[in-house]
Design brief:
There is one protein chain. By secondary structure, the chain is of the alpha/beta class. The chain has one domain (about 1-140): Dehydroquinase, class II (Rossmann fold, 3-Layer(aba) Sandwich). About 35% of the residues lie in helices and about 20% in strands. The protein is built from 5 helices and 5 strands. The chain has a 5-stranded parallel beta sheet, sandwiched between helices. Strand 3 (about 70-75), helix 4 and strand 4 form a beta-alpha-beta unit. Helix 3 (about 55-60) packs parallel to helix 4 (about 80-90). The model has no long low-confidence stretch (mean pLDDT about 100). Bound molecules: 1,3,4-trihydroxy-5-OXO-cyclohexanecarboxylic acid. 1,3,4-trihydroxy-5-OXO-cyclohexanecarboxylic acid binds near residues 10, 75, 99 and 101.
Length: about 140
């Protein structure tokens, strides 16, 4: 199974940004973790991070016909981007939403997730483990 993992703005700042919320593990640690889980589960993974909404949309579109599933942490775009929602709808690949923190226990403006409307499941508040759960969920569809 070929999957694409997309991380949105400021996820590359893990280990530096708001450690009390996101922890002290770095983005490199996250990449390593995702690759390890995918290797253990014989899944082919591409990991993409961008701080730009349009680049995230391009990555989703590029997955069409090439990937079997998408895991996405759109970061702040979760709460604003109808364009990312539409891109996920357009490719109609099984998509899973992940957030390191529990967005529903934070600021009210974080309680809205556009992508959750198209994702088959959302994992939030579990840190890196949310990505593992998402990988295993996609695997179970295979
Ligand atoms: C986040 C939660 C978002 O509200 C925030 O803007 C992020 C990270 C998370 O992984 O917990 O950048 O998606």
């Amino acid at each position: 199974m070929r999957i694409l993992v997309i991380n949105g703005p400021n996820i590359n700042m893990l280990g530096i940004r708001e450690k009390s919320i996101y922890g002290s593990q770095t983005y490199e640690d996250l990449i390593h973790y995702i690759k390890e889980v995918c290797t253990q589960n014989e899944m082919e993974v591409e990991i993409f991070q961008s701080n730009h909404e349009g680049e995230i949309i391009d990555a989703i579109q590029a997955a069409y016909g090439k990937k079997d599933g998408i895991i996405i942490n759109p970061a702040a775009y979760t709460h604003t981007s109808i364009a990312i929602l539409d891109a996920l709808k357009a490719v109609s690949l099984p998509a899973v939403e992940v957030h390191l923190s529990n967005i529903y226990e934070r600021d009210e403006f974080r309680h809205i997730s556009y992508v959750s409307k198209v994702c088959i499941k959302s994992f939030y508040g579990l840190g890196f483990k949310g990505y593992k759960n998402a990988i295993l969920l996609l695997k179970s569809l295979d």
